[in-house]
């Protein structure tokens, strides 16, 4: 059990325990760096005109980047990325990233359930940007062992 988990709960996490909320800024520079690292140069992530031509309001963040940022919040709470054992995400809406100011991902979460043997916990996340839901479903399962 990590000290980080103990700051949120007493001992083993329990269903209903709330993770610290986080606001994560996301800039166009972040999107360019992610495109380079991932090889995903789809113009909807880099060019307003291309995004608008497809009916989007402007440049949108990569879905995998957005989910990785949300997973990172849980990983930090759980004591590290090596604690994440499974994820399940369903996208609900795009994260529009303006050219002049960062988009702000708001990540909140709570323990949905703990395995009977207390080996894992499922954390349900609520992720919004500008008040709009980013994910319809966001569950991160973490190991509580080790």
Q: Overview of this structure, please?
A:
The protein contains four helices and six strands; from the N terminus they run H-E-H-H-H-E-E-E-E-E. Mean pLDDT is 93; it is low at 1-10. It has one domain (3-143): Roll (Thiol Ester Dehydrase, Chain A), CATH 3.10.129.10. The chain is α+β, with helices and mostly antiparallel strands and 146 residues long. It is elongated. The longest helix has 16 residues, at 63-78. Strands 1, 2, 3, 4, 5 and 6 form a six-stranded antiparallel sheet that branches. It has helices at 3-8, 28-38, 48-53, 63-78, and strands at residues 22-26, 84-91, 103-114, 120-129, 132-133, 135-143. The protein starts with a helix and ends with a strand.
Topology:
Elements: H1 3-8, E1 22-26, H2 28-38, H3 48-53, H4 63-78, E2 84-91, E3 103-114, E4 120-129, E5 132-133, E6 135-143
Antiparallel strand pairs: 1-3, 2-6, 3-4, 4-5, 4-6
Which properties best describe this structure?
alpha+beta; Thiol Ester Dehydrase, Chain A; elongated; disordered N terminus
SS content category: alpha+beta
Poorly predicted runs: 1-10
State the CATH architecture.
Answer: Roll
Helix-strand pattern, N to C?
Answer: HEHHHEEEEE
Q: What is the fold-level CATH name, i.e. the topology? A: Thiol Ester Dehydrase, Chain A
State the distance separating the first and last CA atoms.
7 Å
- Give the CATH superfamily: Hotdog Thioesterase
Instruction: Assign a percent range to the helix content.
Output: 25-40%
Number of domains: 1
CATH class: Alpha Beta
Overall morphology:
elongated
Query: What percent strand?
Result: 25-35%
Topology, number of strands: 6
Give the helix tally: 4
- Report Rg: 17 Å
The main β sheet shows up as: 6 strands, antiparallel
Calculate the mean pLDDT score and round it. 93
